[in-house]
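User: I want to check something. If I give you two sequences, will you return the structure for each one separately, not as a complex?

Assistant: Yes, each is folded on its own. Here is the first sequence with its structure:
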Amino acid sequence: MIRNTFQLIPGVGPWREKDLWARGILTWDDFPATEPAVGISRRMDALVRLRIEESRAALRNRDLKRLAELIPPREHWRLYAEFQREAAFFDIETEGGSLFQPTVASVFDREGLHVFIRGRNLDQFPEVLAASRLWVTFNGSCFDIPALKAHFDSFPTPPVHVDLRFACRRVGLSGGLKQIEDRLGFGRPPHLKGIDGWDAVILWRAYGRDLDLEALRFLVEYNLYDSFQLKTLVEKVYNRAVDLLGCEVPRVSVFDRGDVLYDLSKLLLALGRPEHEPRLRARLRSERRALV
């Protein structure tokens, strides 16, 4: 999809790009290399060729930072297929209230699943994220990243951040993360159905108050799903966006979470005793009623 992108040129937006495609200029290689052939206009073509060569060099050198500078942020999703091995999918939970202090965070990257817990290893979270150059979140630009920057003295900034809340809207998928997952056919397992961010606050308080490992395990499992489900979502959104553009480019393979469920189980077992999920859900309902 990167090689089909002409919006790296000043003055070329979605409509002019589609006009180029309609005229058979589908990729950088199709753009007229020399005069007298004209791609856009005699005035603009020299700049177009310069930008295409710069983009080719950046792609050849795996210079994601430069490609991100050339391509408008709204089109950064197009970089995913080429750089998916460098992606980190992450989510955080917070303690509630006005400060939004992070409590539990998780990352899914090329190394697998990572969990970070306040009071244990949360300080290692920025270092792990910094190892990835392409970040994927759901509403992370409005919630997760501002909360993390407020909490940590120093927090990295990636060359590319794809916020799926907005990418989903562009392909006709509105609503929250769990709603979209259900709509696309990869919803949560039954014991996590109906659990939301407010339940995450209650679970953290139970752990902090009573050192309740049952509550911590449930919270970590909930948060891990918020992370690795993003890989399936971004790949479905990428393919849908390509379909809507009508481009003849390869679609990406869609991640199946079955590949990580064994690792998920190991992480949960490492936290403490097995959960007793029905009893815990009853406690959650009781505490939520008390807070209403």
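And separately, the second sequence with its own structure:
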Amino acid sequence: MVAKKREREAPAKDKLAAIGIEAICERVADCETLQSIADSAGVSKGTLIVWLDAYADQYARAREAQADKLAEDILAIADDGANDTYMTENGPATNHDVIARSRLRVDARKWLAGKMAPKKYGDKTTIAGDAENPLAILTMDQIAANPKSRLKV
């Protein structure tokens, strides 16, 4: 049974090696899904993921580039207002469906870029301490003593 598994894995790894890690990472950086890459290579997505483990540094750089591409795509989508309006017999009208779809596309890319590169594209969370030491951990009494605090102890 183990021999059959190795026989199946070897051709799959050979297929991936023939494509090359550079080409696969370029496709990843261009936001192509792993499933799509695996399908075009004729291997399973799981096999592709296992194969990519051997090239963790290159794959990580490709994922960073992918997050950057998503950020660029956000700007392109946001700047493209070509189909936001259309002409009717009464004059121009707003195409709310196109605007909603663009918003969805932007939000999806923002979320994904934030998850892929949280330091670069994630939401910034700040923890405020006191003025002298902004990273200080405050007690509940100190928080309640702040006039801006809604916490009542």
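Because they were folded independently, the notes below concern the second chain alone. The radius of gyration is 25 Å. The helical segments are 2-19, 21-29, 34-41, 45-53, 56-79, 96-116, 118-121, 140-145.
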